[in-house]
Design brief:
SIR2/SIRT2 'Small Domain'; 9 helices; three-stranded antiparallel beta sheet; Rossmann fold; 12 strands; binds ligand BV8; binds zinc ion; alpha/beta
């Protein structure tokens, strides 16, 4: 069912839910000013220096031109360093609540969420190419490729690139939360990138109700019990309003 605002029936379902999981994508940071990967209409993909994000954020380019990959991520760190969370970076209280994000922008944490499952990593963390130690690397623009604080070797952004495996333990926790949820929110994602886009399917198969929040229909709208066609920052606070 497609809705344009949160009804009392939805608020009642929300108030009764006990185990809730949320999957967020780039759309939840759009109102903070962060560019999404696929602009309106899911048509044109984000490009920088004439290359699409799927190439800039790829394991292939990391192999062939790691310096360009750092320049690409440092460019995004520069954009992010001026930006703040928005009302869509929302963390309601439930008996069990799991926040799963595909975003690497750290804005959920900046909004106060402590327990975020970052299935695609975090743009402010670096990972050593030799000993795999991870460490915060917050300065931007970067003077040079960050060096490992343990062994001194060059490091890479600690994010999951296209063609790379997701962090196993984090993704397993995300899958478990999806399968336990009685209510699963899918917020601000075009749901085209796997395996993250498979989480709502796992939740549905395990019996969860699916609520999607997105100004447009997406690849998983067919699966959603409710699609709230609107912006996360405007729709999500409506769940917290008193019922009529
Ligand atoms: C894997 C981190 C397997 C980096 C990301 C061919 C070649 C290579 C790989 C593949 C291939 N074909 C398929 C694949 C698999 C690939 C994939 O799914 N590709 C897609 C493009 C088809 N997946 C992978 O490669 C994954 N790994 O499969 O490994 C493997 C097996 C064995 C051995 C080795 C490997 C890894 C995927 C992770 C890639 N990293 N991010 C970075 O940030 O640069 S993905 C990146 O794009 C995001 O993290 C996110 O996950 C994804 C999609 O973006 P969205 O978040 O959905 O954003 P999008 O712009 O698309 O949509 C925004 C939505 O918001 C829109 O719907 C819009 O309407 C809405 N919106 C706008 N404003 C608002 C709003 N909503 C609410 N409120 C608003 N205000
Ligand atoms: Zn190291």
């Amino acid at each position: 069912m497609v809705l344009h605002e949160v009804t009392d029936e939805l608020r009642m379902m929300f108030d009764r839910a006990r185990r809730v999981a949320v999957l967020t994508g780039a759309g939840i940071s759009a109102e903070s000013g962060v560019p999404t990967f696929r602009g309106g209409g899911g048509s044109e993909i984000w490009t920088w220096r004439g290359r699409p994000v799927t190439e800039l954020s790829s394991a292939e380019l990391m192999r062939t031109d790691p310096k360009l990959v750092w320049e690409w991520f440092d460019y995004r760190r520069g954009l992010l360093s001026e930006l703040q969370p928005n009302p869509g970076h929302w963390e309601p209280r439930f008996e069990e609540f799991t926040l799963i994000t595909q975003n690497i922008d750290d804005l959920h944490r900046a909004a106060g969420s402590l327990n975020v499952l970052e299935v695609h990593g975090n743009v402010w963390r670096a990972r050593c190419l030799r000993c795999a130690s991870t460490f915060e690397a917050r300065e931007t623009p970067l003077e040079d490729v960050p060096l490992c604080f343990v062994c001194g070797a060059a490091a890479r952004p600690d994010v999951v690139l296209f063609g790379e495996m997701l962090p196993e333990s984090i993704f397993e926790r995300a899958e478990a939360a999806a399968q336990r949820a009685d209510l699963f929110f899918v917020i601000g994602t075009s749901a085209v990138v796997y395996p993250a886009a498979g989480l709502p399917v796992a939740a549905k198969q395990a019996g969860a109700r699916i609520i999607e929040v997105n100004p447009e229909m997406t690849d998983i709208s067919f699966l959603a019990d409710y699609t709230l066609l609107g912006k996360a920052g405007e729709i999500l606070p409506q769940f917290l309003k008193e019922r009529g």
